[in-house]
Amino acid sequence: MSLATVGNKATDEQSLGELLTDVRKNIQLIENHDARISQEYKGLIIDTTISLERLSVLVATLHLFSNNETIDDVSTETIKFMLVNAFQGFVHQQHYDFENRKAHVLAAKEYFKDFHHLCQLYGLAEKTNFDANRMTNPVQESNRMEKIQKYQDKKRLETLLEEMENRTHVEEEVQREIYLSLVKLWVMRCEEELYNINSELPMLEHMEKLRGGLVKQRPIIKPKVMKPFILVKSELQKRVFGAGYPSLPTMTLDEFYDEEMVRMAAEAERQLNEPKPVEPEDPDEETEESLGKARAWDEWKDTHRRGEGNRHNRS
């Protein structure tokens, strides 16, 4: 459906187009911002979120997309509004409020899935199961080659998009190709972000349990740091070097050896006193009792014929 066929045609098209243009500029600023905890960055995130909410309501009100259409039925100026949900997912991903990080990540996941589903309806994306966490699956050669291929496709699309957008005069056919390339580029980005979200959520849930006291945090054991000292060969060298470096302890090789032996003996005693983990018994492991029973059975078979003792009361 074309924007020009709905309601106040020129006004709707102009306001939506300008709003989306402003949002795209803000997204570029967010991507290139180097102070993610600054008030300027937070203000940029909030402003973009509000603009996207307004855009989302307008797009839904105008019924720009339908399940009964193909991408050829969608007008050139309408294609770019397919990106609204993708932009909403991106902005929520950029929230670095630690207390509410999980809520923003979950919201981003839903927006990205909505965008991907819309692209599936128009044949711009393939059906994919994003609930599977890629990090838990073994790395296969086919997955690696697929990832390389997607990376190359993404770079090729970025180059093509940049080349087309830099043209001084753009015809409608080229403009349509620009919008379609932009949507395809965000489909690739959306798929990658959804897999990243599935990897991040378990960590956020674990941190939430830690803050709620549901999981005890393991104590951090600091390694014992050996203080610097001067090692010399003899007592004479000890007196000489010790005078030159009074702030550092000095010991001979014999003293160092004695100290190391004491430390090693203490470590060995500590390991002996530690309770050893009880290993489960192996049912196939041979013990003295089982070996004894096996030998007795072999001896009995040597002195008794097969079937003897099982005559069922017959003489």
Structure report:
A two-stranded parallel ribbon has the order 1-2. It has helices at residues 9-32, 39-62, 76-79, 84-93, 101-121, 141-165, 172-212, 235-244, 253-273, 288-303; strands spanning 230-232, 250-252. Mean pLDDT is 78; it is low at 4-14 and 133-140. By secondary structure, the chain is mainly α. The protein starts with 8 loop residues before the first helix and ends in a 12-residue tail after the last helix. It contains ten helices and two strands.
SSE order and pairing:
Elements: H1 9-32, H2 39-62, H3 76-79, H4 84-93, H5 101-121, H6 141-165, H7 172-212, E1 230-232, H8 235-244, E2 250-252, H9 253-273, H10 288-303
Parallel strand pairs: 1-2
Distance between the termini: 101 Å
Structural class: mainly alpha
Radius of gyration of CA atoms, rounded to a whole number: 36 Å
Principal-axis shape equals extended
* Mean pLDDT figure: 78
Please tally the helical runs, counting DSSP H or I stretches of 4 or more residues: 10
Order of helices and strands: HHHHHHHEHEHH
How many beta-strand segments? Answer: 2
Taking strands numbered 1, 2, ... along the chain, how are they ordered across the largest sheet? Answer: 1-2
Given as residue ranges, the uncertain stretches (5+ residues, pLDDT < 50) are 4-14, 133-140
User: How large a portion of the residues is in β-strands, by DSSP E?
Assistant: under 5%
What share of residues is helical?
55-70%
Main pleated sheet = 2 strands, parallel
